[in-house]
Design a protein that fits this description.
The complex is a heterodimer of chains A (342) and B (784).
Chain A lengths: L2 H26 L8 E7 L5 H13 L8 E7 L4 H14 L3 E5 L1 H10 L7 E6 L18 E5 L2 H15 L5 E6 L6 H15 L2 E6 L3 H10 L7 E3 L4 H5 L1 H11 L3 E3 L2 H5 L4 E5 L1 H16 L15 E6 H6 L6 H9 L1 H4 E4 L2
Parallel strand pairs in A: 1-2, 1-3, 3-4, 4-5, 6-7, 6-8, 8-9, 9-10, 11-12
Antiparallel strand pairs in A: 10-11
Helix pairs in contact in A: 2-11, 3-4, 5-6
Chain B lengths: L9 H65 L8 H14 L3 E8 L4 E6 L16 H7 L4 E7 L5 E10 L6 E9 L1 H9 L7 E5 L5 E3 L3 H5 L8 H9 L11 E3 L5 E9 L4 E8 H4 L1 H47 L14 H78 L1 H31 L3 E6 L4 E4 L1 H7 L3 H4 L10 H12 L6 E5 L5 E11 L5 E10 L1 H36 L8 H32 L7 E4 H11 L1 H6 L3 E6 L5 E4 L1 H17 L6 E8 L3 E7 L21 H6 L7 H11 L4 E6 L3 E9 L3
Parallel strand pairs in B: 17-19
Antiparallel strand pairs in B: 1-2, 1-5, 3-4, 4-5, 6-7, 6-10, 8-9, 9-10, 11-12, 11-15, 13-14, 14-15, 16-18, 19-20, 20-22, 21-22
Classes of the chains: A alpha/beta (342), B alpha+beta (784).
Keywords (chain B): ATP-binding, Cell membrane, Coiled coil, Kinase, Membrane, Nucleotide-binding, Phosphoprotein, Transferase, Transmembrane, Transmembrane helix, Two-component regulatory system
Main location (chain B): membrane
Enzyme class (chain B): transferase
Chain lengths: 342, 784
């Protein structure tokens, strides 16, 4: 072999070798996930927007950068059942990598739409996924669903206790609920039991439409009830404005679920931290996107429950919240509570 | 040799040696860091993993310590009878520390006093006694208690912490029991990562999985006490450092993992971190990869460098080699231009010098070569002739081979025919056997005859090769049969044989030729040659007879010497007798009678014959000894012959013979010795007269041409018998009829005459018929 040929072959070989090494190294240093995930966000009402925001924030913290390796398709049915079902089906048609649904109606719609699909569903803000029939057990859903429970049924008694503690003089509490609602009705039942323990009468108002809530509130007379309470029925929650208006008119406290309601005029709220629950749900979604099956991920309870006292509204309706409760809320820290000042 | 070193070019050798040395050094150097590095990497991987585990253990311990501490912190604020106050304290605590989901204040008797929960409301009637609970008893004893892991209805793992509390200012005791969610510990475990593929988990004192990033595994209540690290921790309370062989095992997914573990002493738990072995030792992989890359790139670089080195070193040498070839091809004007500044450049300069000198030598050699070329051409011609002879021989051999094949064919035919006549030929076979035996006997006889021959015999075949030599010839020539057979005489390097060869080549059909052999004692051979002609008249070869005449020569010499001595001795007294008788016959000493005169005349004649005989003998001896000197002068042959004829006129008259002289020329001159020539003529004329019948004539004719004269002496006498004609010119020979007719004569005359004629450059021969006469001829060259 002539010298010139030797040099030529060696040069080509070295270049090829260097290129291979470069490619191999670069491949190893590449992003963990080069795939762009398509996630459908299915929301029943804007009242739980913070949950969606928490989910996206949680996904971002886990490395999912919107527009880079994850794309969200947000659908808000604004309380419309038919629309939520349609949106759920559309996600299946689009073959999204994952559906995130918050509240029971959205989760119901997602579950039905994915009956013949393997698209995983992570739910959140579902009061009792087991009672709702979404899962086989807390330990394992047995299907393509998993998620975080908002435990509103579990904390329903505690919510009544907080209401009683904040306003010790209340004797009668009006509770709207939809019979058959997977969250509202069982929560109401728990509230009713707790009322018995606390010496509070629960005035139940079964409703099926928002108009009914409005109508009842419109016709409610002073001193008819001492307080209003949302059992954690999404339809009731959706009527927060009506309830606030009644609360102010009747100068009676209103117990609702989250900061959002407190900001809209509820006197006191006790419930999950929507944002934190959303982040907690994101951790489950991350596991699924990395390959774990939903059935292998147990349903999780909220990490944090949050109490919000609206001193301003309390003052408006002429009520004073005990100082110890206020202290407690302050001591609970940012995650445990919040005081809306006068 | 066990193996043969293959031929490799020098450049490749240099490159190969450099490559091997460099490569070996590269491997050695890399191994120096790689091997310890691999061990270190293994150790570092385990160390790192263990450090993470230690950190995790600290975190878990801290977490629990903090939570226990936070419980302990509220103890002093609790009052034994201030239920609502205590409730408020507990509610505040629960709202703040939401990792606890239930807290119960138990008094010293074990009775629950206050119970608050994140979820439930407990009425007073729902409070029970915990006096029998282990945690109450242990905590009341003053030791904080940590229970095993439980799972709530909501599938949340939790454990029960119970701490003793001392109500102030009374100092009485109680127990504060709290249910602690283990989600935070789950979070700690999940965040304990070594690399991206590690898996951390916590087991309790019984080996049950109580914390795992995969909660579903925890919910399965798995018992991992079979795992070696778990066993080591819960049984021996030892740290699992990842360096022992059992620290590497197959996990439940069939993956080989490296495990480290830390015992959590306070809780009797164990924290284990598993990591896929491949991931743990990825540093090894990268080091090995680095080694391989260095190995490959380094090897290539060394190879590259080796080639460059070879090119740098061999380039000038190649130039040198090419230049040497050019010079060697004959271009002596070519000069090498190498400026490598080393020994090769010196060598190139030496080559150039050599080229110059070669050129000078070349011119000289060319001249020498031309000379040698001419010699070689001559030799080549000789070789060509030899080759031609060989080719002819091949042709003849082929012919013989053909003949043999034909003969074989004929033999085969004859064989088939003989088969038919086999029965009849049995008798013939017997005869043949007898004949064969006779032939063999004949052959043996022939061989015996050859062996018994006293003369040497050499047979040369038709191609000139010696085909037969008898023992006598071997002895004479001092050769061995096997050394000379199938060789030509000329090819045999022996002086004696060369002499024989020269003699044969000079003349064909040698009658008798003397050859003196080299060596001592002196031997003289008389060689005769004769053609060997086959029955089909083909010449089969030539036979050379070697007759050892050494003894004969010696005897002849002795005889000659004797004759010489005798002749010399006799001459004087004979001369004296002649002189005496002459005196008496001339009556110088007195008168003598007629009868006395007749008697004395007879005596005188007899004495004359004796004197003539003695003179003849002396002449013969002189001839044989080479002392018969000829003084060649230009003489007139006509005058000589006339003179000689005159001398014999008296004898002729006495015998009534008429001498006729027929001379064509007036004078013919020859270069000759007058006396010797006269003697020759005398002998011839005397014989013609002596052996002629009375009344006949003797005719002497002399003719000549430009070159020679021819003399014919013709008589009509008795002639010479045919069977004795060959010996006419021999010494002492006289034909039988001559002896009868003329009782006197020495038989030396014609021997002398032949010698004289031949010495004068002439020839002598005769024609004779018994009873009719003889004519003797001789020629002599005419003097120029």
């Amino acid at each position: 072999m002539s010298n010139k040929k030797t040099f030529f072959i060696l040069t080509i070989f070295l270049i090829v070798l260097a290129a291979v090494i470069f490619l191999v190294i670069n491949q190893n240093n590449g992003n963990k996930q080069s795939k762009v995930f398509h996630v459908g966000l299915l929301q029943m009402a804007s009242t739980v927007n913070a949950n969606i925001d928490g989910f996206k924030a949680g996904m971002a913290e886990l490395g999912y950068q919107e527009g880079k390796n994850i794309v969200y398709d947000y659908k808000n049915a604004e309380g419309n059942i038919d629309l939520i079902n349609e949106y759920a089906k559309s996600f299946v048609v689009q073959r999204v990598d994952l559906i995130f649904s918050d509240t029971s109606p959205a989760t119901q719609a997602a579950k039905e739409a994915t009956t013949n699909s393997t698209i995983p569903v992570v739910f959140s803000m579902v009061a009792d996924p087991l009672r709702a029939g979404f899962i086989a057990s807390i330990q394992s859903s047995g299907n393509n669903l998993t998620g975080t429970s908002c435990a509103y049924i579990d904390i329903a008694p505690k919510r009544l206790e907080f209401l009683k503690e904040a306003f010790p003089g209340i004797k009668k509490v009006l509770v709207f609920y939809r019979p058959g609602d997977k969250s509202g009705e069982p929560a109401y039942e728990e509230i009713k039991k707790a009322g018995q323990k606390l010496g509070v009468q629960i005035i139940a108002k079964p409703v099926s439409k928002s108009e009914e809530i409005k109508e009842i509130l419109k016709n409610l007379k002073p001193f008819e009830v001492d307080a209003l309470m949302d059992p954690a029925d999404s339809m009731v929650t959706a009527n927060v404005d009506s309830l606030v208006e009644a609360s102010l008119r009747l100068k009676i406290p209103l117990m609702m679920l989250s900061d959002l309601e407190a900001e809209r005029g509820a006197t006191i709220t006790y419930g999950v931290d929507y944002l934190d629950l959303g982040k907690q749900s994101a951790a489950l979604a991350d596991k699924i996107l990395r390959g774990t099956k939903p059935a292998e991920i147990p349903i999780e309870m909220p990490r944090t429950f949050r109490i919000v006292l609206n001193l301003k509204v309390a003052n408006q309706i002429g009520l004073t919240i005990p100082e110890n409760l206020i202290t407690r809320v302050r001591a609970a820290g940012v995650s445990g509570g919040r005081i809306i000042p006068l | 040799m066990i193996f043969r070193i293959p031929k490799i070019k020098l450049g490749n050798k240099i490159a190969l040696i450099y490559f091997i040395l460099g490569f070996a050094s590269l491997i050695a150097v890399n191994l120096i860091w790689l091997l310890p590095s691999l061990t270190e990497t293994r150790k570092n991987a385990a160390t790192l993993q263990l450090e993470i585990a230690k950190r995790g253990a600290i975190e878990i311990n801290s977490f629990l310590d903090y939570k226990i501490g936070s419980l302990e912190n509220i103890g002093p604020f609790l009052r034994p009878q201030e239920i609502e106050k205590n409730r408020e304290i507990l509610d505040n605590f629960l709202q703040k520390e939401q990792v606890f989901f239930e807290i119960t204040l138990i008094d010293g008797t074990g009775q629950e006093r206050i119970k608050v929960s994140q979820f439930e409301i407990f009425s007073e009637s729902e409070l029970t006694s915990r006096a029998d609970e282990e945690y109450f008893q242990k905590a009341l004893g003053g030791i904080f208690f940590v229970s095993r892991v439980f799972f709530s209805e909501k599938a949340e793992p939790y454990l029960i912490l119970a701490i003793p509390i001392y109500f102030s200012p009374s100092g009485t005791g109680g127990v504060l029991m709290a249910k602690l969610k283990l989600r935070e510990m789950q979070q700690i475990i999940s965040e304990l990562k070594v690399g991206s593929l590690s898996h951390s988990f916590v087991v309790d004192g019984e080996g049950r999985l109580i914390a795992d990033p995969n909660l579903s595994l925890v919910l399965k209540n798995l018992n991992l006490s079979d795992l070696a690290p778990v066993k080591k921790i819960i049984e021996k309370k030892q740290i699992v450092d990842g360096l022992a062989s059992e620290d590497i095992y197959q996990n439940d997914q069939g993956q080989s993992v490296l495990a480290v573990g830390m015992p959590l002493q306070k809780l009797n738990w164990g924290l284990i971190i598993e990591r896929p072995e491949a991931d743990a030792y990825s540093g090894l992989t990268s080091k090995i990869t680095a080694f391989v890359i260095i190995f490959v790139l380094g090897g290539l670089s060394i190879f590259f460098a080796a080639r460059l080195l070879a090119i740098y070193l061999i380039g000038p040498m190649k130039k040198l080699g090419d230049g040497a070839k050019i010079i060697g091809a004959g271009n002596l004007d070519y000069r090498l231009n190498i400026t490598s500044g080393d020994e090769i450049q010196e060598l190139a300069e030496a080559f150039n010098e050599m080229g110059s000198q070669l050129k000078e030598s070349y011119v000289y050699l060319e001249h020498k070569v031309d000379e040698r070329t001419r010699e070689l051409i001559a030799q080549r011609d000789q070789l060509d002739q030899a080759v031609k002879k060989l080719i002819d021989r091949d042709v003849v051999l082929n012919e013989i081979r053909k003949q043999q094949e034909e003969a074989l064919l004929e033999a085969n035919k004859a064989k088939s025919k003989s088969e038919e006549a086999r029965i009849a030929s049995l008798n013939i076979l017997e005869d043949i056997d007898e004949s064969r035996k006779a032939q063999e006997d004949e052959k043996n006889k022939v061989e015996a005859v050859l062996r018994s021959l006293t003369d040497g015999l050499i047979m040369i075949d038709q191609f000139g090769w010696i085909s037969l030599i008898n023992p006598e010839a071997e002895a004479m020539l001092n050769v061995k049969k096997e050394n000379v057979l199938l060789k030509r005489l000329a090819e045999i390097e022996k002086a004696d044989i060369k002499k024989i060869n020269e003699a044969i080549e000079k003349e064909e059909g040698i009658e008798k030729k003397e050859i003196k052999l080299d060596g001592s004692p002196e031997r003289i051979l008389e060689i005769s040659t004769a053609l060997v002609i086959g029955v089909d008249k083909k010449i089969l070869g030539q036979v050379i007879i070697l007759h050892d005449i050494t003894r004969e020569k010696a005897v002849e010499k002795m005889k000659t010497e004797f004759v010489t001595i005798t002749a010399h001795q006799l001459r004087t007294p004979l001369s004296a007798v002649k002189w005496t008788l002459r005196l008496i016959l001339d009556q110088d000493l007195g008168p003598i009678s007629k009868e006395q005169a007749e008697t004395l005349q007879k005596g005188y004649q007899s004495n004359e014959r004796m004197i003539n005989l003695v003179n003849d003998l002396l002449n013969i001896t002189r001839i044989e000894e080479g002392r018969f000197i000829y003084g060649l002068l230009k003489i007139s042959f006509i005058d000589l012959i006339k003179e000689t004829v005159d001398n014999f006129q008296t004898l002729a008259d006495m015998r009534n013979i008429k001498i006729k002289l027929q001379i064509s020329e007036n004078d013919i001159e020859i270069m000759g010795d007058k006396e010797k020539m006269k003697l020759a003529l005398q002998n011839l004329i005397e014989n013609a007269i002596s052996y002629s019948f009375s009344g006949s004539d003797v005719t002497i004719s002399v003719d000549c041409d430009n070159m020679n004269l021819t003399v014919a002496i013709k008589d009509k006498g008795m002639g010479i018998p045919e069977n004795q004609q060959k010996r006419v010119f021999s010494k002492f020979f006289r034909a039988d009829n001559a002896v009868k007719m003329e009782t006197e004569g020495s038989g030396l005359g014609l021997f002398l005459t032949k010698n004289i004629i031949e010495k004068h450059g002439g020839k002598i021969w005769f024609e004779s018929e018994e009873g009719k006469g003889s004519t003797f001829y001789f020629t002599l060259p005419i003097a120029k």
